[in-house]
Design a protein that fits this description.
By secondary structure, this protein is an alpha+beta fold. It is built from 15 helices and 20 strands. The strands form 5 sheets. An 8-stranded antiparallel β-sheet has the order 13-12-9-10-11-14-19-17, with helices on both faces. Strand 9 and strand 10 form a beta hairpin. The N and C termini lie far apart (53 Å). The structure holds ligand MV4.
Length: 446
Amino acid sequence: MFDKVLIANRGEIALRIQRACKELGIATVAVHSTADADAMHVRLADESVCIGSPPASDSYLNIPRLLAACEITGADAVHPGYGFLSENARFAEILEEHSITFIGPTSEHIRIMGDKITAKETAKALGIPVVPGSDGEVATEAQAMKVAKEMGFPVLIKATAGGGGRGMKVAHSAADLGLAFSTARAEAKAAFGNDSVYIEKYLQKPRHIEIQVFGDGKGNAVHLGERDCSLQRRHQKILEESPSPALNAESRKKIGEIVANAMKKIKYRGAGTVEFLFEDGEFYFIEMNTRLQVEHPVTEAVTDIDLVLEQIRVASGGNLGFRQEDVKFSGHAIECRINAENPRTFRPSPGQITYWHPPGGLGVRVDSGVYQGYRIPPFYDSLIGKLIVHGKNRNECLMRLRRALSEFVIDGIETTIPLFNELVRQPDITNGLYDIHWLEKYLGKS
Ligand code: MV4
């Protein structure tokens, strides 16, 4: 096992990772920018190193400074959290070259899944159902037209280097295709420095359902069920739940087994998420994330497995501690992302938290890196906490969530809590009847 882990992240996830390290008896190193000197993850760490100025490129994304912090503190492993360098294959490689363990998958797996065409080809070859579309890159408008006409409209042009919805354009008919193709390419070039695009059949009202996987890099792998992440705005998830209200036991088992077998074949190591669109009872692979995700506590609640602790265990050479038949799914969990934002306009609302009263009680978990008196800096994303509620079934979970939300008091800044108070009373939400467009339509109406 490692003696000392450096946590290359900030906020609630830095604290989440520290907690797992502490339970394993591992010393922790926090790194932080000058804007985060007062952050909770810095206060609670065994050691901390200031690595630069507020812009992430000078601190949390700065590989030479992170390496220097490892060297100064003698850390033998790095946990990247989510975002920042968590899916940077080069960072994983550089750490290994310096005999520091990257707590995550191999750089090869990160690279394969980072390129959306290679990811899709790999998934398809492993027997995972994918969205119908072009075989790889589409280089010319003429080629795009040929593929689209064979497949039928509407189609979606996607950036090969993309993900998270950037560089995506819908073409509803042949008349739209020329403009969609050229704008997708231009946006891809501007956003990723790579204008490669591919085409898929556009699914019009899918749900976003992702399967949590976990492997030990030795050919043992399991699935840990799904999370329904359809409630999102501009590709930012707002609320996630497990199990998905849209799945039955049979379809859950079937897709879970397909994905777990695929992970066994590639000897995947650590936590991963295989993302699908789900429409009319069918799953369609879109992407794989090779990192721990923001919404991982939803899976922890229903499986009672500590995903971060397991990540650390397998990164240090341990075997998977459980088999598929040992994984028991219990009850229902919902996570609400508490952002420092206006709940209507979503304009960021940094500033001082003058009062902080998180909810508690049975089945309630709050993961957060803030505290009363803390000043939220304006430089980073606006997630300040996550409320995760667990119950015996979806109805109990919802009742408990309404209760927990009503207890939550945050003063001094605006937060998304009022939005959640509304959402948990909407019939479509309580009935589980929502697709990826539901929230934006709701926000447009009200
Ligand atoms: C799609 C799609 C419809 N059809 N692909 C958006 C981000 C990226 N992860 C994939 N995305 C989508 N891909 C096909 N073939 C619709 C989306 C999409 C979406 C997906 C998941 C969650 C929210 C979304 C919001 C808008 C569009």
